Amino acid sequence: MTATIQGVPVSWDRVRDLFALDSTVAYLNHGAFGAVPIPVQRAQQRLRDEMEANPVAFFTRGLSDRLAHARRHIAAFLGADPDATALVPNATAGIAIALRTVQLGAGDEILLTDHAYGAVRLAAARFGARSGAVVREVAIPLTATDDEALALVTSAFTPRTRLVIVEQVTSPTAKVLPVDKIAAAARDRGVAVLVDGAHAPGMLNVDVAAIGADFWVGNLHKWAFAPRPAATLVTAAEHRPAVEPLVVSWLEPNGYPAAVEYGGTLDYTAWLAAPTGLHLLRTLGPDRVRRHNIDLADYAQLAVAAAIRADPADLTRSPATSMRLVPLPPGIATDRPSAMALRDRLSKQYKCEVQVTDWRGRGYLRISAQVYNTRSDVERLAAACAELVRAGG
Predict the structure, then answer these.
(1) N or C terminus: fewer CB in 10 A for the chain?
(2) How far is it, in rounded angstroms, from Cα 307 to Cα 299?
(3) Angle at alpha carbon of residue 10, lines to 323 and 32, rounded to 5°
(4) What does pTM read for this prediction?
């Protein structure tokens, strides 16, 4: 039997039809901004129609209860305490709130990995400069095991380290880091832990409570089929009284999480429609979705690597992720401007959307796989990359 969500038939055989993506494009960059399924778009549009039919009623009669209802659904999906969970626009907004909450002083240290997302690095630098704290980075090789990554992070702690920011799935390199082990080791040393789980919801089977971090942030609009922007901030009990929302609103006296979520005349429809995305994921089957994405990501990594004659010894993978890296030949996409130029050329000339990233002075393709992708998308990207590499990038 085919399920129906928001009037849209949902079946695995026609899963590509659940998305409004341009059929002429090989879209292999889901990890950038996600792609909102049509049933979720409809759910959000109905909420917007309701809002515009009577804005006073929408904003003043029951909105807090509806947000709390959505929050409970999302928290259950993430394995988080609903009282610990606040809805935020995106992971970087949650990180900014967490950085404001940790009381840093002159000479304190914020520790990052060299896989940190660029905006996270910039946020740490801003808050460090304001407080006098020092930002340091620890290098973790792509080939590092969980135990090696744990040892590298913990060996970088000093008596001045107050906060460590660590990625659950690294954005530039698609590597899973042992955030639960790092959080446990940091607790033993009195270091607060902020987990950047931007890519985790939907891609991984997340259990936030089991991680045990002081703060955890994750996007719902990447791999959990939510509209943009939709994300969560999960905060340990001891920090909640100190949390300050980025904007003061009428719900400031209510405290966490309502004060964080409410901002007057914001568009709350992405948060309210996010449970529809989770319903769609459950209807398709989370395990089946993940298996498809992992298998196709594996195929893509090998196919594109072979097309550009990359050394198989340079290929790395985190088995649970639906993103893979393919190293580009030396000299291609070695910095952000040249990486973005190559990404745009693949899009405009070949109609292939894929992330191009530079890391440690080396260019990489970061290929994402989602249920709407097939091997034909991969083969089209492989042919385009082969042609570009032969032409020297």
Answers:
(1) N
(2) 12
(3) 25
(4) 0.95
**CA 137/CA 125 separation, integer angstroms:** 11
Tell me how far apart the alpha carbons of residues 236 and 68 are, in angstroms, rounded to a whole number.
Answer: 18
Q: What DSSP string runs through 325-356?
A: EEEPPTTSS-SHHHHHHHHHHHHHHH-EE-EE
> Is residue 171 classed as helix, strand or coil in its secondary structure?
coil
Tokens of 256: 């966490």
Question: What is the predicted pLDDT for the residue at 82?
Answer: 96
Where are the strands (E) in the chain, listed by range? Answer: 3-5, 8-10, 26-27, 85-88, 109-113, 134-138, 161-167, 192-196, 215-219, 231-235, 323-327, 352-353, 355-359, 362-368
Q: Is the separation of the CB atoms in 382 and 307 below 8 Å?
A: yes
The Cα–Cα gap between 98 and 336 comes to 27
> What is the number of other CB atoms lying within 10 angstroms of the CB of residue 210?
10
Comparing CA positions, the residue from 147, 159, 95 lying closest to residue 124 is: 95
Both tokens assigned to 21: 């993506």
Tell me what pLDDT residue 21 has: 97
**Mean pLDDT by groups of 10 residues along the chain of 393 residues:** 88 95 97 97 98 97 96 98 97 96 94 96 94 96 96 96 97 96 96 97 97 98 97 97 91 93 95 98 97 97 95 90 96 93 96 96 96 97 90 65
Answer for the pair 342, 363: CB distance below 8 angstroms, yes or no. yes
- Three-state DSSP class for residue 126: helix
CA gap 369, 301 in Å, rounded:
10
Q: Is 322 helix (H, G, I), strand (E, B) or coil?
A: coil
Which domains, and CATH codes, for the chain? 44-279 (3.40.640.10), 285-390 (3.90.1150.170)
Residues 6+ apart with CB under 8 A from 46: 6
- Nearest CA to 185 out of 204, 211, 221 is that of 211
pLDDT for position 392: 65
